[in-house]
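Worked example 4.2. Below are the chains of a multi-component assembly; read each line carefully before continuing.
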Amino acid sequence: MLSIKNLKASIEGRQILTGLNLDVKAGEIHAIMGPNGSGKSTLASVLAGRTEYEITEGEVLYNGKNLLELSPEERAREGIFLAFQYPIEIPGVSNATFLKTALNEIRKAKGLTPLDSKDFLVLMKEKMKLVEIEKSLTSRSVNEGFSGGEKKRNEIFQMAILEPTLAILDETDSGLDIDALRIVAKGVNALRSKDRSFVVITHYQRLLDYIVPDFVHVLYNGRIVKSGTKELALELEDKGYDWIKEEAEVQN
Amino acid sequence: MELVTENINIKENFLQDFKIFSETLGKRNHVAIRKEAIENFRKAGFPTLKNEEWKYTDISPVLKLSLQNFQTENKLLSEKNISEFSISGNDSILIVMENGKFNAALSVNKNIPEGLIIQNFSTANHPEFEKHFAKYATHKSDSFVALNTAFNSDGVFVYTEPGVIIERPIHILHISHSENSVSYPRNLIVTGKNSQLKITSSFHSLNSFEHNMVNCVNEIVTEENSQLEFYLIQEEENNCYHFNNTFAHQEKNSTFNICTITLGGSIVRNNLNIVLNDQNCTSHLYGLYLLNENQLVDNHTLVDHAMPNCYSNELYKGLIDGKAKGVFNGKIFVRKDAQKTNAYQSNKNILLSDDASMNTKPQLEIYADDVKCSHGATTGQLDEEALFYMRARGIGESDAKALLNFAFAGDVIQNIKIDALKNNLLKLLAHKLNSHIEFDLN
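Applying the procedure described above to all two chains together yields the following structure tokens:
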């Protein structure tokens, strides 16, 4: 589904990704861990199409297409979803209008008829239960005045409505208490399917107790230096990142 | 030098026109005030960029036109024209002003609620009319007010008797269609003690004509404990020039809310002056301007806190595209006696093109020491982060911009308390933003 080869990206002349390789197949969950500043969020931003980053080398194929040539909205319409680490507040635009517009753009791209307000409301109600989101939250402006937990739940709610093929969760666990974390994980798990893949970016192993990954990768200095299964995450939790850093230095 | 000569010539034309016009005036027409006003105009002339109050607003294009200051009756409007502009809803009490003159045939004269007095100036005989007419509009300092006072052809006097609450809104519908001429409508609105009223005053023009200028003066008095909602909608074609002067005078415990929405016009200048003349008055001043092409819109507001314990809150917003220019100047005076004043002001602008521009200037003069005042002005581009967030959800760039612009401008329109008008303006806004997406229209 997603194939990243030797990806190098920089921002303001600073090289962040230094030759990253990653293959994600349909239905898999990949966790990407790594110390601060290793390039985790850059990877998420590059995949979602932020233009501040300059791709200096490498390629990203998504279902056989060159992802780097697509605009952010084209990527979303192709089924890519980024759950933001810091969701943006949009005063004056209601969650419902925002999501309905987004969903119908994606449906249009798929050749489906747009949902009318009534059908959209039914869909919304169904998905609201999934992430235990209050009805009032949907009529409020996008993320405006939401607590940190509400913002993160709103991201998962949006994901549930938009039903992406590839979801990238950028530190969705940061700033969540254990109850919110459980709700978010429940939402993600409910969306697991053989056709849908997840890239879960996280700093802590904690989230992976709830969203069990098929693979765990460690990102350091802009590339993946170690890959394994969920046991690797536990080892990192236990031993920290220093041994990974040492190993990486030795390899160099 | 050339410009100066031109200014003098056009000034002479106006003075000459008045001479002819004054001969048609009868006893009822406040001749003395008119003569005084034209004298003030003779002294002041038209403002130039050297005048601090007109620093960013060049009216020389207007002065190049050959404009007729008074017109023979030219009634062309039909019911069909009217329905096209009935933005204040069908239950509004409609008053049609055609080229600045009252059109009785198209105005509602039946089922006027009890306690509501509506008269046109040529027949107005109510004591409240004589008591307040031309008492607030200062023709000494403003040439356009002076010209309106001198040439004013007709107008509407609205009065709510004490204690009367009028549920149905009044819609004063101004339509201009006469070519190369100035119309001088004028309104006097007085809300009696404990009364409540909502008024839409909208300006439109029929296309397929040459230049046209409106010079309108509104005088408003809110008596003790009364409430007035006043909505000024400017939706003329882009070959129209509009000079609007509104003077509001508030008495004790009264509330005056005004929303000025400018969607059209080539050069538009709005002066809004509010005097909070007694304790516990409340005023909200909202403004929205959506500009494009070569439009120039200038809003000058003055909130004069003369007495203690009053509250005023001002929010003006602009979306400026093309080569359009916006000007905002917001004065707040807090006089020595006006302790415990709360006065807030905010002006926010989004420039949608590289050639668009905005000049904004808050002016606070505070002479009392126990007050809460604040002001803020921002001019910028659309929020890039919000745009990216929307695009990352599949919404195309132009739709994302339209959603943000709709939210930004809708923020002002949401304060309108006539539902039909609010919804019609939101629809107009959606149409102006030229997007196929479905906005929240309520």
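Take a moment to check your reading of the output against the notes. Chain A is about 40% helix and 30% strand. The mean pLDDT of chain A is 93.
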